[in-house]
Structures are given as C-alpha cells and as structure tokens.
Design brief:
alpha/beta; single chain; 5-stranded mixed beta sheet; globular; about 325 residues; 4-stranded parallel beta sheet
Length: about 325
C-alpha cells in the first residue's frame, strides 16, 4: 500500500486529465504512477538524488525522477503533470539551489516529507577557480578578479550544490536520507538502516580509491568546461580551473580563455575536460588553441547511453581513470 494517501487537489486533477498521469523517468522496475504503486513513493529531482533513493529504499520504494535521462538538470522546468505527481507522492528528495523550478514546486507542494540534500551536509562556496590564486600568489591575482563573474551564477547563493561528486559529502547526505526514510516509513526502517550502512561503506571505499589513485601525480591542476568539481578538487588536494562557472551554459570571456591558456602552460595541464550532457565545442576550441587533448569528466548529473558506466559508482571510477591520466598519476 502507499504509505500515505491524500486528497489530490483540483488543480492536480485538472493537470492529470489534460496531460495524463504517467510515470516520469522510472528509476525502479515498477512503472505505475507515483501515489498508486503500493510502495513508498519518492520523487527525486535528478539522478544523484534518485540513485540515493533507490539504493537506500531498495524493494520498498518506487522512485521517479523529475529530470529525464540526457536532460541538463539546470535547465529543468517543472510541468503541470510533474506538479500533480508531487501531490500524490510520499516523499520528495531534492537538492535546493540546483534547480529553481524544483525548489519552487516542492516548496508549494503539500507533500509531508521533503528532504533537502543541501541541509544534510555543509555547502561551500566554489568559484571558477579553487585555490589556484593562493598557490600562485600574486602572479595571477589581477587575472582572477573576474571570478565572481563566472563563479556565482545561476542562483547558487547557498553555495556550490555539486556535493555528490565528493564521496565523503555524498555519504553524509546518504545517512540523512536514510534517517528521513526511516522516520517517514517506520515499517521498513530496519531495511533502510541496513541499506544506508552498505551504501556509506561503498562510498568510503570509493573515497579511498580516489585518495590512493591520485596520491602520486605530476600536477594538481585540471581544466573543465563546468565548475562542478570544486568539492572533489578540495577533497583530494587538486585545483579545478573551469572555463565556465557553476552553470554549464555560461559563456567564458576572452580574458578567461587567455588566462586558461597561460595556466595550462605553467602548470603542465595536458587535458581539457568536457561532459556528456553539454556541448564539447568550447573545450575542443580551447584544447585546439593550446595543443591539449580533450576527455570526459562526467559530473554524473544523469546516466545516458553515452555515459562511461551504468550507475554512479561506475561513472565515478571512469572519472578517476581520466583524472589519473590527465594528472600523470602513477
């Protein structure tokens, strides 16, 4: 049975009649609509949240994602059907600050269990660069004055939301989600507790593989198109230099491109990383101008046929391999 039933609003009923009440991206094998699955129905904002819900909930949950595979999460606009689906769900799992339309829809929803991953770990400010100015003293100081132009866009006032790319922070979020599931669906609390512990151990092992895999490297600096890897860089003592800011659609300035060319030469950068859900045009242009190669560093915002793996762990392992090659790790 559904954990909690409620009367669906007139607005939601109208939306259902007009658009049909089907499943969004079904993250479990059950294809029934949220609110009618016989399970604990969780609506997740995008893949990293859906992955947590699946791993922690196991057989007791039915997970749907508001973001379709291959869709850039930052660009999501909530539809009337998705609003209706929220009305009939038992829980919403999201990351406030990443998708403004999701934040608004969940904020206005009567759903009782609202789990904001941003409240389950400490968010930090990461701009276009992470620590590079400190390492290089005043050498690039004037050139880095544009950081706020690129590093604090797309309404990320609460801090950098890309916490899932740091296995340690992602584990903290997992523990919080597990506790929320236990409270909302106490009949299956023991299983949620067990599944959470297993997931946290897996994330701790991933963290250790990153630590050892990146321990001996020729350079600390890597260049990306999208400033998504600030937490990962900080965790493992690296420096991310991003072409764009926290929003992958931000266009870099000419001054930023010239600065990156200089940084690449001085710091022994070999690779410009791009990602699967965003055009690689800017990365290839910069790489061509500087004689560098390109490769994928996936922010794991969604799994598609182009992803280097079928789930979070496989794609993160591929990211580790790519970083080891780019940084000259032994």
């Amino acid at each position: 049975m559904n954990v909690r039933r409620r009367h669906i609003s007139a607005l939601a009923l109208t939306a259902v009649a007009a658009l049909g009440f089907g499943t969004l991206t079904a993250c479990s094998s059950d294809s029934a609509a949220a609110g009618d699955t016989g399970k604990f129905d969780v609506v997740a904002s995008f893949y990293p949240m859906a992955f947590l819900a699946e791993r922690i909930g196991g057989e007791h949950v039915h997970v749907t994602s508001l973001t379709q595979p291959g869709q850039e999460p930052h660009d999501l606009e909530i539809s009337a059907r998705q609003t209706a689906q929220l009305e009939e769900s038992d829980a919403a799992l999201y990351l406030k600050g990443l998708q403004p339309s999701v934040d608004e829809a969940i904020g206005q929803s009567p759903i009782a269990t609202k789990i904001d991953a941003a409240e389950l770990t400490a968010l930090e400010e990461h701009g276009t660069e992470v620590g590079h100015g400190e390492e290089h003293g005043d050498e690039h100081g004037d050139e880095h004055a544009h950081e706020d132009e690129h590093g604090h866009d797309h309404d990320h006032e609460g801090g950098d939301p890309h916490i899932w790319l740091d296995p340690v922070k992602y584990a903290e979020v997992a523990e919080g989600v597990g506790k929320a599931f236990q409270k909302a669906d106490p009949d299956h609390a023991a299983d949620y507790r067990k599944n959470t512990a297993t997931l946290v151990k897996d994330l701790e092992a991933l963290d250790e593989r990153f630590r050892t895999g990146l321990a001996n490297r020729k350079t600390d600096v890597f260049v990306t198109t999208h400033a998504a890897f600030g937490y990962l860089a900080e965790r493992y003592g690296l420096t991310e230099e991003a072409i764009s800011g926290l929003d992958p659609d931000t266009e870099p300035s000419g001054a930023r491109v010239k600065e990156l060319q200089k940084i690449a030469k001085e710091d022994g950068v070999t690779t410009v990383f791009y990602e699967t859900l965003v055009s690689d045009r800017t990365a290839k242009t910069l790489a061509g101008d500087t004689g560098l190669r390109t490769d994928v560093l996936d922010p794991v915002e969604g799994i598609t046929d182009h992803s280097r793996g079928e789930d979070y762990f496989q794609v993160m392992e591929a990211n580790l391999t790519a970083l080891r090659t780019a940084l000259g790790a032994r």
